[in-house]
Amino acid sequence: xxxxxxxxxxxxxxxxxxxxxxxxxxxxxxxxxxxxxxxxxxxxxxxxxxxxxxxxxxxxxxxxxxxxxxxxxxxxxxxxxxxxxxxxxxxxxxxxxxxxxxxxxxxxxxxxxxxxxxxxxxxxxxxxxxxxxxxxxxxxxxxxxxxxxxxxxxxxxxxxxxxxxxxxxxxxxxxxxxxxxxxxxxxxxxxxxxxxxxxxxxxxxxxxxxxxxxxxxxxxxx
Length: 222
Fold this sequence. Notes:
Strand content: 5-15%
Low-confidence stretches: none
Distance between the termini: 47 Å
Order of helices and strands: HHHHHEHHEEEEHE
């Protein structure tokens, strides 16, 4: 995960983010989000609104985005809730970045299935490019963190970069993904194993084969 300490609330931070407010499009989206919750329960919208705020900060800084204290205060005021309750949520869930991150947040899974399948090689490939855990590179392009299980154990090792997962990685494959991102391209997300569709066995499914490309009702066959 990225560092979980709060970025110091400095005058410079206030100058940059103290006037934060929703963009026109995000103001509309925020109303849609709050409307999902019953009357008196609008504070339940704090998680999606924090995500929306982080994405707006990301759009303004050309990074994945993060949550400065003034931005969290804005969300707290929007939902009429104490700022400490917003900070509690933001600091508990690792999907929220509490400090500035780079344009691409590279989260390498180091849990046992990924470790057994070569996550150390993935981490080493990132370090060869100048990345260090918990830090952002000098060019602002990469932030590297090590995370716990991301739920892709059947296609380990994997990394999450911003909103996309990249699976079945090797050092060469992760290099290709990072090269493409650095060049402004959009590499294929998901498994990087040629010919693999999702997480069926390498070489193709051995059962329920008709499900590989489309839904199939097997009840008539049983």
